[in-house]
Task: structure prediction
Amino acid sequence: MTDGQGPVVVCRNVSVAYGPTTVVRALDLEVRRGEVVALLGPSGSGKSTLISALAGFLPIRSGEILINGRTVATVHRCEPPERRDIAVVFQSYALWPHLSALETVAYPFRRRRVAPPEARRLAAEILERLGIASLADRRPAELSGGEQQRVGLGRALAKEASLYLFDEPTAHLDAALRTRLQSEIGEQRRRSGAAAIYATHDTAEALAQADRVVLLRDGRIVQDGSPTTVYERPAGVWAAELTGPASIIPVRIADQHDGRARLEVAGVSQTVVVATAGARAHGEVRAIIRPDWVRLGGDVPAHVDAVAFRGTHTDYQMGTVAGTFGVRVAGPPTMGLGESVGLTLERVWIPAELNDEGASEGPNL
Amino acid sequence: MARSAAIRQGAAIAAAAVVIVVIGWPFVRLGGVAFEDGLATALATLTSPLVASAIWNSLWTGVLVAVLAVCAGTGAALVTERLAVPARRWLRLGMLLPLLIPPFVGAFGWARAYGPRGLLDQLVGSDLSGLYGPLGVVLVLTVAATPVVWLIVAGALASRVEPDVERAARVSGAGPLTTLLTVTLPLLRPALGSSAVVAFVFAVNAFGVPSVLGTPAGFATITTRLYQDLALSAEPSAFVRVTTMAVTLVVLAVVVVGPTDALLSRRGATRTAFAAGGGSNGSGGTAIAMAMGAAIVVTTVLPFAAIVLTALTRATGLAPVPANWTSANFGEAVDSRFVGGLVHSLILACAAASIVSLLAALLAALRGRAKVLGSAVTLGFAIPGSALAIAVLLAYGAWLGDTLAIILVAYVAKFWALGHRQLAGSIDRLPPDQVRAARASGAGPADALWSIVVPFLRPSIVAGWLVVFVFAIHELTMSSLLYGPTSATLAVVVLNVQQLGDPTVTAALAVLLTGVVVLAAAPLAVLGAGRRAPAR
Result:
């Protein structure tokens, strides 16, 4: 680990390809010390490939990668993984079938020429911290999926790297264990000041865990911002639907100042918090509306099309003359199918993309 | 339920009966004859100089070939599956080439390429001294055994050593060599063990190679000694020696194969195959690929080219240039013996392949419920062909001697395991839920078998048939001991001509024999490619 103040990772114009297929295209990314960045995208978006390039498993086709200010990859050079200041938690766990949990976690220490007894002591300490000290002598075949995952995490922690790479780290875990692991990862990061990059397709996890969310589509960055930004101001319909439920509704903006606007939706006039990105924030526009931006009660006439009880809240689909809204309300359902109700809009987001291109995606929840 | 239990019972009884006929009874007879005059006589024969030296030669060449072939095959597998080498597909294909050439043809090829008055001798005026003798026997057997090791290790690299497991070591700070030593090789240990056993059994089993390269130099192994005593000697003590050596071969096979088989079956379920990764991008990839290509050319391509050139040249000793070319050797080769041998080989190979397919299906129907039968079948394959042939001869020689039928019995005993392994392997991969889904959809047991299981197994049945066919076409060891005046197979015809010492006609016959093998193996390659395609 170095004490430099510069970014831990710099990717400049990085492209990565498998044979003839380019998977990551001319990508720029910087990750600062102590920062957690989530790479969020569907499968095939290039997030795992980018992780592989950062780790040194794949060479890059263009650009350069710097870790701690040192160039580790260019088109002509690919520094091997063992010389990079990184640790990786693999999606497939990638545990060694012939080594016990303790031997696995001791392995990175041994590679740094730590004497065997000391390496075992340090490894045991990490297992203790992860709550699996009792499994020290077990081999992967004798461990459950969650236990294997923790051993894999322990091995990464033993590397004491500046950059932790997580390839879908919690993809196979149940919710309770996932929460536990996330806090362990977070603690390690605070303790050592290391940065972390997560590749995930789980939106809730990305928004909850990361300081920054990078949305990837077909190997390109669609949006790069804080969790609140990508949720409240998604770059477009694709980004909006990736980061949570969203309805696309035509509205008519009458006048607008100080972030509030009078607008007309389904023929009814409302005053709402409005955010716009450039372009025509006037007249007929298409707006993105999250289900938690709509309140029950009000003047916009609607009827219940669908109800789904989710435990902590209830999701409704509300039909209006302007289109179908998703509406999220705390608590159990209070209305049945077909019932009529009035709605109030509290907030809308008018992305540039939707109105410049005139994209024609229908309402979607 | 009662009906399927009855079917299973019937299958078990039928399979057991065939096992007893083709494997059990012959070995009971072999043991009986060998110990007819008591243990002391058998031991005395065993320690007589002729027998003891043959056993010793078989043992040490077997061990040496196993070690060399495991090193070469594992190295090649690491290169083709893990390094970023150019022309990876061609290297893989090159590794399989020796499988297409019957081992004794390979030995003949080496003699024509690097031996006295061979290609090298004619070009640069020097030859590989010691090619006739133990050195040549070990070299050529290693070349022939390496592809088998390569297949086993490359398969294990793909299925047991996921690239992520090696990457995890690299990320943990291990260099390429440390990763190889601490992760890759330990994970390959079962594959290295089983391939060493296969190479050892193959080498001890070998008859053609020591007979072409060892016998002229007076270097005898158990198999060549057996052949000489049985086929060429009339003295009564020769027959005692034959049975004693055959029993020795059986004991060797059981001692070596038994524990390994038990050990390997314990290792549990293998992992699902993983697409071979790009591997590390070593800068020396091109150099390594070229070195490997050169090795394939020297060990396999040149010897075969030497055979082709010899076959095309008018007389031995003439330079193999177009001015001296002729097709007369082929004309001379294709005589009534050749045609008879070809017909016999085709009949035997077709019959053996079909019978083995049926028997394999019978065993598969038992789905691992008859472990003893499975082990007996494996043993049939592991026991050297010489011993098997002697045992079959003792059991059925009186009724079936000198007929194709007795050769067929030996083929079935030997190759049953090949078909069985193919089918058993893929029946394990059939998810049980698929049959349950068919039954839940309203199919009866027979209907489910026909509509779900048989289509799933069809490629394996076809592949098993073809593998047995290819092996049977160039089988030499057993055929050379069992053939009679009217039942010589193609390989036997080639060997006899070779022993008469006419290189040009032998070469023409060897080319034709290899051609038949290649023709038979071609659909197998297509099948293999088709089966690998969906995994990509």
User: Anything to note?
Assistant: The longest strand of chain A covers residues 294-309. The two ends of chain A are 45 Å apart (CA to CA). Confidence is low (pLDDT under 50) at residues 357-365 of chain A. Chain A touches chain B through 31 residues (CB under 8 Å).
